[in-house]
Design brief:
This protein is of the alpha+beta class. It folds into two domains: 113 residues; 184 residues, Nucleotide cyclase, GGDEF domain (Alpha-Beta Plaits). 56% of the residues lie in helices and 20% in strands. Strand 7 and strand 8 form a beta hairpin. The longest helix is centred in the N-terminal third of the chain and has 45 residues. It is rod-shaped.
Length: 320
């Protein structure tokens, strides 16, 4: 604002004052001719035009350049480049604008970092749902498919290897699980020591969650055997109605799925550890799957799972 007023003073105020002073002299000093007065006025007008143009061009450049820089930086931010930073080179309010832009981008970077960290801890879908709506305790009944994976002989694995080697092995093992679950639009609800629980159909809706869970289970079984042969793992798949939502307290809660499919998948996982393929699914999950997915499975024996009164028909992978 001070710079603008200075430009006005030098470009308009001083010439107008000069014209006024010339007029006063012409009135008080009678020996001035009209020609001399006209020349004086024209000289002041020419100087005002010249210096006014230079000053206004300078003022326009000094005003527009910081705005152009911030506008170009905003365009880069819109395209997703949060590393953008503006050099503050103006000492006026426009410099405050540049500093404010840098603070804004810094805040966006921090928000994106927290969003990424939050998504890694609770799952991208859960994080997106938490952002889209107000989180609250409680849940809703959903039709889901559940996949449970657990390493065979985990106690021996931990005791016979250094801790760093065990962590590296588990990371390679879990990387396979996360990649395949993400590929089938599910989410890994939790890691439990050397096991993992994956859910299909919550919080994001899937038309046939059984298809996604069964295909992910087959892919995980193949990849674990090929890429992490040190970790034989049992895999169980079940489907049905479960309650999906936030469980805990107002100060600390987590998104989880509770219900019979979770328990059944865990029991099938235990049973699968003693089978050649290390992979079992419930007959109910297979019946609700599409015909193309059912072609990869065969029905097996009927057993009573631990903790259940009713018998469960098992389904095994058909590929040899």
């Amino acid at each position: 604002m001070g710079r603008t007023m200075l430009v006005w003073l030098l470009g308009s105020g001083v010439p107008v004052l000069g014209i006024g002073v010339t007029a006063i002299f012409s009135l008080t000093l009678q020996h001035h001719t009209p020609r001399q007065f006209a020349i004086a006025v024209l000289s002041i007008a020419a100087a005002a035009l010249l210096f006014g143009f230079v000053l206004m061009w300078l003022q326009s450049w000094l005003t527009a350049t910081p705005v152009r820089v911030v506008r170009a930086a905003l365009h880069r931010v819109e395209e997703g480049d949060l590393t953008t930073n503006v050099v503050v080179f103006d000492g006026t309010e426009l410099g405050e604008l540049q500093r404010g832009f840098n603070n804004m981008v810094r805040g966006l970077r921090e928000r994106e970092r927290l969003r990424d960290l939050f998504g890694r801890h609770v799952g991208r879908e859960v994080a997106a749902a938490a952002e889209a709506q107000r989180t609250k305790l409680g849940g809703e009944e959903r039709h889901v498919a559940v996949l449970f994976v657990d390493i065979v002989g985990s106690t021996e694995l931990v005791t016979n290897r250094p801790a760093t080697e065990v962590v590296d092995l588990l990371n390679r093992f879990f990387a396979v699980i996360v990649e395949e679950v993400d590929r089938q639009h599910g989410f890994v609800n939790k890691f439990e020591g050397d096991g993992a629980l994956a859910v299909f159909g919550a919080p994001n809706h899937l038309d046939r969650p059984e298809d996604h869970a069964l295909e992910a289970a087959r892919a995980i079984a193949r990849r674990v055997q090929r890429e992490v042969p040190e970790c034989a793992a049992g895999i169980g798949v079940a489907a049905g109605q479960a309650v999906a939502g936030n469980v805990g307290a107002n100060e600390r809660f987590e998104y989880t799925v509770i219900g019979e499919p979770v328990n059944e998948a865990a029991r099938l996982c235990e049973l699968a550890k003693d089978t050649p393929h290390h992979l079992l699914a419930s007959c109910d999950a297979l019946e609700n799957a599409s015909e193309s997915e059912r072609a990869h499975w065969v029905l097996g024996d009927t057993v009573t799972l631990r903790g259940y009164r009713e018998p469960t028909r098992l389904a095994l992978p058909a590929e040899r």
